[in-house]
Amino acid sequence: MSATMLPRLGLLFNHDWDALGFALHADRFAFDTAGFDLFSFPSNARLVGFDLQRFARAQAKRGRRRGWVGVLSHHEQFGALAAALVAEQLGLPGTAPEAILAAQHKLHARRVMQQVVPEASLDFAELDTEYGGEIPQGLRYPAYVKPVKAAFSVLARQVNGHQELHAHTRFGRRELWVIRRLVEPFDRVCRARLPEAGTAHRMLLEAPVQAPQFNLDGWVFQGRAQALGVVDAVMYPGTQAFMRWDHPSRLPEAVQRRALAVAQKFLAAIDFTHGMFNMEFFFDPATQRLSVIEFNPRLASQFGDLYRRVRGLDPHAMSIALAMGQDPAALAGVRRKDGAAASLVYRAFSADVVPPMPDARRRAAFTAEFPDGLLFAMPKRGHGLARDFKWLGSHRYGIVHLGGHDAQDLRARALRASSLLGWPAPYFEPRLERSPAMGELAAHWRASTLSATGAAP
Q1: What is the pTM of this model?
Q2: Distance (Å, rounded) from C-alpha 138 to C-alpha 141?
Q3: Where does the pLDDT of residue 4 fall: very low under 50, low under 70, confident under 90, or very high at 90 and above?
Q4: Domain annotation for the chain: domains and CATH numbers
Q5: Percent helix / strand / coil, the chain, rounded to 5
Q6: Is the pLDDT of residue 424 over 60?
């Protein structure tokens, strides 16, 4: 079939993992792309004056002219909402914009969860202060603070005292410029379409949790939520920074089913009836408590390769089917290559010890030994590097995807690949072992912090 006869879809903010995932289908679909990269210059200069509604209107006009049969995006900051707005204007299958807003506005989502899945909802409160404003006295610590609207765990961390929270929320002029321009396009749409959520230009506090973390991925078609699978998150020891994502999950099947039941209730409550989703959650094996961290109303694109390797499922193909109004469950699978797979995240915790990027020789050696491996090098310097350490507490300088026959083979391959690249291997075997009781910690936090902020229980 010639390129002019291929079904044509709009891909918005199509970068990194999505660019790789959708490229696998370039022989069956014609793609029109739009949007910019938030993390590279000069592309991110388009943040100046960016208006999400104006962008969506322009893409809807383009899609009408080009004959789009679908429009989609898995970009958290702008793309998912933009695609929903465009689909609405073109009368194409898509997620309702209000459902995207309800999931991405973390404070509003917490309120909904408290009503419909209280057993899986963390205690929370709004941090009632403007960016850089004075922190209320009387809060009890530790507490977990995060922006109401953000992505990639930016500015999300546990704080252990007033001074630590105060320091974490001090922003320079350059930082405030970036924060406001990242949030305002979303907030403008939210004020018009979901005003009851309130402004997204603020932060919230949550009860801290000490328990293993997981990701449930899935899709909703004709109002029915189904699971794609679960990916385990492994942290760098003693930190809140992701070190690795593993699939298949070590989580018992019964707990995975509980996670899906929670997702089904929340998604129904926000009228999320069509689209891909990702639910981040804790599971404490000591208390058997499952607690939702947040919902992402789009595919977690970084995990797409893991599902292809281990389960023979292609989430990007599934998202294309949804964009065209088709049931993803009807798609044929792809060839499974591995029994286990991981997304390895290489981090530095000090600007003084950031390993060098692999040179051409090291890259060639990696490719020769691991031809199916994926390598992303992410060098930063100057303000970008300093902002990583301030906002994230670490610098993510590389990601590698690998598969293996089983978990043991995968680990050996990961150690070898890291050696070839000249990077310390991000490998540590997690265990679902007893953790501090969540109930006691949450009760203490609720009784002290929530009352201090004046939040209703």
Answers
A1: 0.89
A2: 10
A3: low
A4: 3-92 (3.40.50), 122-208+436-453 (no CATH), 213-421 (3.30.470.20)
A5: 40, 20, 35
A6: yes
